[in-house]
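Handout, section 4.2: multi-component inputs.
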Amino acid sequence: MKHLEIAKVLENNKIAPEHYRITLAAPKISREALPGQFIMAKCSDATDPLLRRPVSFNRIDREKGTIDILFKVVGKGTRLLSEIEPGEDIDIIGPLGNGFKIDASRQIAVLAGGGAGIAPLLALAKEIAPKIKARYALIGANNINNVILEDDFKELGFEMVISTDDGTYGKKGLLTTVMLEIIGSKIEAANSFIYACGPRPMIKELESISTQYKIPCQLSLEEWMACGIGACNGCTVKTKKGYKKVCSDGPIFNAGELLWQR
Amino acid sequence: MAEIAVNIAGIKMNNPVMVASGTFGSGKDYEDFVRLADIGAIIAKSVTIKPREGNPPPRICETPSGMLNTIGLQNPGIDVFLKEDLPYLAKLKTPVIINIAGESIDEYSQLAKKLNGVPGISGIEVNISCPNVKQGGMQFGIDPKMAAEVIGAVKKATKLPIIAKLSPNVTDIKLIAKAAESAGADAISAINTVLGMAIDINSRRPRLSMAVGGLSGPAIKPIAVRMVHEIYKTVKVPVIGIGGIMNADDAIEFILAGASAVQVGTGNFVNPRSAVDIAEGISKYLTANRFVSIKDIIGQIKA
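Output:
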C-alpha cells in the first residue's frame, strides 16, 4: 500500500559536492519499502517548484522505521530539499514503483551505478549480501570528489571497481568500459546478473552489453514525473510492448525490453 | 454545517469538488490515499474510439507554478475501457463522468452511443479542447459552429447529462459557451490547458517532444477565473471551474466567479487528497462566513 507520510528529518549530511543524504523517520513507508522503489517528496509549500520530486531509497531500516534518501542537487526542487534541517518535516508519498528482483540462481551480482545512480543500489546491496556469493560494485563518477558510498559497499563485502572520467580516482574512463573489462576477466557471464542505475547513455550502453554477452540485467530508469503513482501517463518510456510508465510499470526494467527514442 | 451537496445537470454530488480528466487515471491509483466516495465526482481519463498510444517522451515539464504536458490522449480505446476500467469505477459510490474525445463528429456520436445506458455512468464530459492531438480535440472547441455540431451530435446519441469542456485558446470563450449551450450542453466546464512552450537553452531543443503542450497549474488560475466569470454571465447552465485549483481558497474564488462546482487537476499530483481537503475547506469557509449553502456564494462577487 502507498502512504502519505509527514516524515521527520533526523539527519541531513552533505556527502560530496551537491550530494545530500537525508535520514527520515517514516515508519509506514519504511516497513514496506523495497530497494529500487522510490518516494515523491514535496520540496516546498509554495507553488514553485510545483511538483513533487522522485527520490529513491538509499537505505531502508525497517526496525528503526527510517529511510535514507540520497540525491544530487540538479535544480530548484532538489536545492530546497538539500537545505532542509533536522527536526523539520517533509511530506512524502511512497513506497512507489517496483523494486529490483534478486535472481539468486546467478551467484555473481554486478551492481553498476553512474553518478548519483549508485544511491538506490546500496539498498539493494544490503539485501543481496546474504544471498549472493560473488559481489561487485562498479561506481562511475566524473571525478574523485563525486565517488560516493565506496565504504558502504565494502562493508557489505563487495569488490569495488571504481572509474572516473578524468582518472583522478580508480580507472580512467567510463563505467561501461570497465564493465567490458571485468566481463572478459573477473566474471563468468553465464552466472552473472547486472543491476544498474545511472545516466541514460550509460543505461543504453549497459543494455547493449547485456544483450551481447547474454547477461541478464535490471535497469532503473529516471524520468520527469508528475503524479508518481501511475495516473497521469507523463513519465512513459517506449518498450517492445508499447509505452510503459516509469513510475508504476518501472522504474526497474529488464534489459532487452526498452526501445530508445532519444 | 453549511450545505455543499450540489446537483450539476442532474448529477447529484456530495460536494462540488470533482477530479479532472487525465489527472486521476481511473481512480484506482488514488485509493490508498483517499476515500473515493468522498470526492464529488470522478471524471475518468479521456477515451477515444480506437486505442491511442500517446505522444513520445518527454511528455511533461515543469514551468514556474505550472507544468506543460503533451500526453496525447493515451488510452486503450472505449471498448477496453468499458471492459477493464469501468467496473472498478462503477462500484464506487461516487458519480462517474466519462470524458470522450473524437477525431470527427461521427466519432463523438459513436462514443456517446456506446456509453448510453451503461450502468455506473452519471454523465459525459465532451472534450473539445485537447491541444495535444493532430486530429479533432481542440479544433472542435475553437469554432462556435463546430462546437455546436459536436455537442448536438452527442446530445442526439445519449440521454446522459452532457458537460462541454472548453478550451481557453480562443479569442472569445463566450461565443463557444453560448454555442455549446444552444446545442444542448447541460453544463460547461472550463478551462482545459493553455497552449504553451518551453525550451531547454543548453540543448536548444523544446522541452516537450511535440514542442507545444498544455499548461496547467496555479500559473493559469487567473485566466481560468476570468473565463469562468465570462461564461457564467453568458449562459444559464451550470459552469464547472477548472484551472490551477490547489486549495479551498482557489476553489472559492472560482465559485465566486460563477462556478457551481470545480475540478482539481494538477493539484492531485501535489496532494493526492486535494479534492477531499478542498471540499472540507469550502464547508468551513461557508460556515465561518455564515452562509447556509454553497448556492449563496455562486457568482456573488461584490461590485
